[in-house]
Every structure is written in structure tokens, then in C-alpha cells.
């Protein structure tokens, strides 16, 4: 087992290294001469040289990359091109907002999807099962940002129960914080729930076809008891995998939802930095988001090695 | 029930495609002429869906917007299939360790979902329809690669491929004559599902102002504009969202429907 875990850890580290190289190449080499892009064609050679020295682009690519990675290992994301502030100081206060949003969205998604997915599996030949499945199909087609706009249309514009946008830190005003986060979290969570319902449904259906479920039923267990004991555990296993895969969807969804509700998270920071051509911030934020996705998926892989001995040597399909 | 899914999906996709085609020759009003009517009209006559903040007929913009959505979808999914399928088929006949390397490299793209890659590229190269299409396309390559690889491996294990090999058929001919036709249905399902995802990603990018430029009507940007005027004319935030949702629903239903029609074949490999 230790060998399997170390292998997965090695793969994770290699993926992180590769991702960092891709991100750095796209933001440092792909735009061409960044100094010229920033200063325009009117800049004199001396100005260009000074700018290149300031940005460090006069050095060889791999020297620049090495310096960036060495900084990353100390949580130093470099200096903003636009404001010349340390990127870390810009990211840190905003990370909490995004974390609340993604965490809340995931919680809503699981809380909605597990019961509804179970209902869809158990009542699959009845109207309720059909309605849940059809609802999930429709939910998957709704863009999270449109769900956000519709929710704020109803609860902020029409009913005036909740604020349409903005953010208050929980330390300052707990109620206000919750009020500002309710709609974004629901918008993000519900759309994600639609995707999860289908997985929960199919993993419950798999259990219904298993021998151990039939045995439990035949020795007199009620359907509910058999499913509680066997169904939920098996569904939980595949749910963990799916959540691993869904983390990227949640993060991407959060970037857009932050824009819909004007939340000051790292998604907003990313989008603002793109429009200011501040690639130092862009690469820092994208590196953080890619790291979260890769680490979560790596942990899911490792959890599987621990939980399921059959998977220790199997290729992940 | 399952055939009904497919039928509903085909009807929805057909409607959107028809709307996009009709918009080339006819729209009720000009989709771009500013102030052809009063701004922010409610739905009514002659502006069936109302008008936007620039006084442009909303129905006309929705119709032309279908073109942007389908255009991005076709190019992005086409790119993903053209790159992913041959790589997948080729990797099926690679030795185990080499195939593992290919798969691990494509795994890295999991860290870059379409939208994140598109934002990253827009930051480096500037936002444009082309950047968006390329980003969505690249992010969709791994799905095609995996599906094609799984399908090709099961075909390569079959007796008729063995017979073809025994009679001296080259690897390339086997791939083109035997593998591709047999995995085509699988690819068809993936095309449909990827199309739905591509349209969602394009809509989000245009909403963020990083996709289709503001001069070309697109559903995502229409939603962004409508949000600004949510208090004055909320109806404008309905139509573009509904168009996106129905298009995505259509492609998802076609994908699911196809998968179910092909089920016995798919269960083995997917």
C-alpha cells in the first residue's frame, strides 16, 4: 500500500510541476515581449530595457521560471505588475471569500443531491423518480451565472429579501455576511447538485442490483435498512470520486458567480487582473486554483488506494 | 421513454440550428442597428421579446446569438475530436508504460478546466472568440482521447482485427478501416456531450466579456447587459438564459439518448 501511495504522491508532484510550467509559459513567454505590450510601440529602447529588467524578462526563460517556483515554495507569488504590491498580499484576504463560496456550494450540492438521487433510484418507475431525473437534466443545462441572475431577480429585485450583491466579512457582521452569501451559494450549489444527482442515482441503482443487497433483503431487512447500511456506503465511495472531479467545476463556477454577485474573491481578482494585463497576479491565482484541483484529485486517488485494495494496481479509467 | 429523450433532444437542437440558419437571411429587425426602437421595451408587438438597453430588437439578437454559440461549439469540439481521437486510437496500440505516460500528460489538463484555460489565454493573448474556442477545444481533448482509446482497445482485441493482422493489413489500415467505424458511435455521444459543455463555457466567457466581442450578438453578453438593467426591465434576463439552457438541454438529451440506444455496446467500454 505504501508503494501505491508514494506512486500517487509522485504523480501529484509531477502534475503540479507540469501545471506550473504550463502556466508560467503561457503568462511569460506566450504574450511575446511583455515590456513592449505594456509600454506600447512609442517606447524608447532604453525604456524597454528598463521595463524588461524590472519584470525580469531579460533573463533566460528557465531562470525566470526557477525564480518564480522558488518563490512559490515560500508562498511568495511575486509582485503585481500594475500596483507593484506583493501578489500574496492581494490574494490572501480574498481567498476566504472564494473558500466560503466553494465550500458552501459543495455543501448545498451534496445535501440536495444525495436524498434526491436516492429517491430517483428507488422510485425510478414512478412519477417522482421521473420528475427528479428530468429536473436534474434541466438543472444541468442551466448556466450557474443565469441561475444567479434569476435568484437575485426574484429574491433581491422582486421580494427585496436579500441583497443583490456585495460582501461583508463575517467578523464585522455575521448576519450580513450570511445574507450576502445565501444567493451565490445556492446558485452555485444547485447547478452542481443537478450533476451529482445523476451519479448518486446510478450508484444506488448499482447497489440495488448487487448480491449483498438481495441477500440483506431476503433475510428480512427492510429496503430502507438495507440501503442505509449498504447503499449509502457504496454511494459515498463513488460520490468522493465525483466530488474530486467536480472540484474544478465548482471553482470555475465560483469565478463566474463572484462576478454575478460582485463578491471580492480571488475569481474577481483574476478577472480584474486579466483586464489590467497584470499577468503576475493571473499566474498566481491560476496556479492556486490548479493546485487545489490537482491536490483534491490526488487525495481522492490516495483515498482509493487506502480504501479499495483492488484499485492498488489498476489503471484509473 | 429513452427514445423520447433522443427525440426531444433532436427537436431542440434542430430548432436552434434552424433559428441560426434563418438568421442569415431574415431577422424580424436588425440585430445590430442601435435605436431602431425605444430601449428596454417589455415583450409585445412588434418586438415579440422586447428590446435591449440600446434599443435593439431582442428576438433578432437571440436568433443571431445562436450562430455564435453553435460556431464556437463546432470549432471547439471539432478541434478536440480531431486531436483527441487519433491520439486515443494510437495510444491503444502503444506499450503499457507509454500509454500510461500519454494518459498522465492528459491528466494535467484536469487542472485546467475550459473556462480557467480560456481566462488564462485571454490574459496572455487578449480576449477573442478564437482564444475561447482554442481553450475550450484543448480542455475537451482528454475526454475524446480516453473514449477513443477505450473503444479502440476493445476493437483491437476482436477476432476480425486479428484476422486482418494475420492477412498482413497495416496498422494504419486497421485503424482507418476497422477501428474508426466501430468507435464512431462512441465518438458521436462524446461530441454531443462536449457540445453542451462548450456552449456553457462560451456563454460564461461572453458573460465575463472574454469571449465573443461586444459587436457580435451573443447570449452570454446579452445576459451581462440585462443584469445591469435588472431593476428596470427584468424580462431581458430571461430570453438569453432560456436559449442557452434549451440548447444545452438539447445536446445533452441527444447524447444521453444515443448512449442508451447504443447501450449494450457502450457498457463494455465506457
Brief description of this entry?
The complex is a heterodimer of chains A (317) and B (270). Chain A contains twelve helices and no strands.
Care to describe what's here?
The complex is a heterodimer of chains A (317) and B (270). Chain A is mainly alpha-helical and 317 residues long. In chain A, 76% of the residues lie in helices and 0% in strands. Chain A folds into 2 domains: 2-72, no CATH class; 93-316, MetI-like fold (Orthogonal Bundle). Chain A has helices at residues 2-28, 34-39, 45-55, 61-72, 87-122, 127-141, 144-158, 174-208, 211-218, 223-260, 266-275, 279-307. Chain B has 270 residues and is mainly α. Chain B has one domain (2-22, 53-269): Orthogonal Bundle (MetI-like fold). Chain B has 10 helices and no strands. In chain B, helix 1 (2-25) packs across helix 9, helix 2 runs parallel beside helix 5 (129-156) and helix 7 (171-207) packs antiparallel against helix 9. Residues 266-270 of chain B have low confidence and may be disordered. At the A-B interface, helix 1, helix 6, helix 7, helix 10 and helix 11 of A face helix 3, helix 4, helix 7, helix 8 and helix 9 of B. Chain A: Its main location: membrane. Chain A: This is ABC transporter permease. Chain A: Residues 95-300 form the ABC transmembrane type-1 domain.
Amino acid at each position: 500500500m505504501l508503494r501505491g501511495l508514494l506512486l500517487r504522491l509522485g504523480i501529484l508532484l509531477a502534475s503540479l510541476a507540469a501545471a506550473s510550467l504550463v502556466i508560467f509559459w503561457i503568462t511569460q513567454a506566450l504574450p511575446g515581449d511583455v515590456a513592449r505590450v505594456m509600454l506600447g510601440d512609442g517606447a524608447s529602447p532604453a525604456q524597454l530595457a528598463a521595463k524588461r529588467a524590472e519584470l525580469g524578462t531579460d533573463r533566460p526563460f528557465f531562470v525566470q521560471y526557477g525564480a518564480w517556483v522558488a518563490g512559490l515554495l515560500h508562498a511568495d507569488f511575486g509582485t503585481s505588475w500594475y500596483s507593484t504590491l506583493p501578489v500574496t498580499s492581494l490574494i490572501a484576504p480574498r481567498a476566504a471569500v472564494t473558500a466560503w463560496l466553494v465550500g458552501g456550494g459543495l455543501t448545498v450540492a451534496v445535501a440536495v443531491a444525495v436524498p434526491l438521487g436516492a429517491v430517483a433510484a428507488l422510485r425510478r418507475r414512478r412519477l417522482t423518480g421521473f420528475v427528479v431525473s428530468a429536473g436534474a437534466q434541466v438543472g444541468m443545462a442551466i448556466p450557474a451565472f443565469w441561475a444567479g441572475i434569476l435568484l437575485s431577480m426574484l429574491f433581491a429585485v422582486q421580494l427585496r429579501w436579500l441583497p443583490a450583491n456585495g460582501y461583508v466579512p463575517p467578523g464585522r457582521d455575521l448576519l450580513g455576511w450570511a445574507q450576502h452569501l445565501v444567493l451565490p451559494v445556492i446558485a452555485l450549489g444547485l447547478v452542481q447538485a443537478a450533476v451529482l444527482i445523476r451519479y448518486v442515482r446510478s450508484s444506488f441503482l448499482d447497489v440495488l442490483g448487487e448480491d449483498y443487497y438481495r441477500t440483506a433483503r431476503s433475510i428480512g431487512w427492510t429496503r430502507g435498512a438495507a440501503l442505509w447500511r449498504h447503499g449509502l456506503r457504496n454511494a459515498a465511495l463513488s460520490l468522493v470520486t465525483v466530488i474530486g472531479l467536480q472540484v474544478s467545476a465548482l471553482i470555475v463556477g465560483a469565478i463566474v458567480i463572484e462576478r454575478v454577485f460582485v463578491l471580492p474573491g480571488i475569481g474577481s481578482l483574476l478577472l480584474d487582473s486579466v483586464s489590467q494585463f497584470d499577468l503576475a497576479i493571473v499566474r498566481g491565482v491560476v496556479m492556486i486554483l490548479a493546485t487545489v484541483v490537482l491536490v483534491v484529485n490526488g487525495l481522492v486517488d490516495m483515498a482509493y488506494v487506502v480504501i479499495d485494495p483492488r484499485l492498488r494496481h489498476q489503471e484509473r479509467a | 421513454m429513452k427514445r423520447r429523450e433522443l427525440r426531444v433532444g433532436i427537436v431542440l437542437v434542430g430548432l436552434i440550428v434552424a433559428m441560426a440558419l434563418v438568421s442569415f437571411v431574415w431577422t424580424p429587425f436588425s440585430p445590430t442597428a442601435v435605436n431602431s426602437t425605444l430601449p428596454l421595451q417589455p415583450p409585445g408587438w412588434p418586438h415579440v421579446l422586447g428590446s435591449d438597453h440600446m434599443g435593439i430588437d431582442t428576438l433578432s439578437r437571440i436568433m443571431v446569438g445562436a450562430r455564435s454559440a453553435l460556431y464556437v461549439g463546432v470549432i471547439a469540439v471539432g478541434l478536440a475530436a480531431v486531436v483527441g481521437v487519433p491520439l486515443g486510437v494510437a495510444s491503444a496500440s502503444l506499450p503499457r508504460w507509454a500509454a500510461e505516460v500519454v494518459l498522465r500528460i492528459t491528466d494535467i489538463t484536469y487542472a485546467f478546466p475550459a473556462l480557467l484555460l480560456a481566462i488564462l489565454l485571454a490574459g496572455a493573448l487578449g480576449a477573442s472568440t478564437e482564444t475561447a474556442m482554442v481553450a475550450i477545444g484543448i480542455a475537451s481533448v482528454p475526454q475524446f482521447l480516453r473514449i477513443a482509446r477505450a473503444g479502440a482497445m476493445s476493437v483491437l482485441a476482436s477476432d476480425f482485427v486479428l484476422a486482418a493482422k494475420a492477412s498482413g493489413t497495416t496498422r494504419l489500415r486497421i485503424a482507418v478501416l476497422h477501428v474508426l467505424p466501430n468507435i464512431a458511435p462512441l465518438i458521436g455521444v462524446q461530441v454531443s456531450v462536449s457540445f453542451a459543455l462548450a456552449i456553457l463555457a462560451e456563454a460564461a466567457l461572453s458573460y465575463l466579456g472574454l469571449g465573443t466581442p461586444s459587436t457580435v450578438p451573443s447570449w452570454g453578453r446579452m445576459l451581462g447587459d440585462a443584469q445591469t438593467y435588472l431593476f428596470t426591465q427584468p424580462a431581458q434576463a430571461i430570453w438569453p438564459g432560456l436559449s442557452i439552457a434549451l440548447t444545452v438541454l438539447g445536446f445533452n438529451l441527444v447524447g444521453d439518448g444515443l448512449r442508451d440506444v447504443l447501450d449494450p455496446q457502450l457498457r463494455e467500454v465506457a
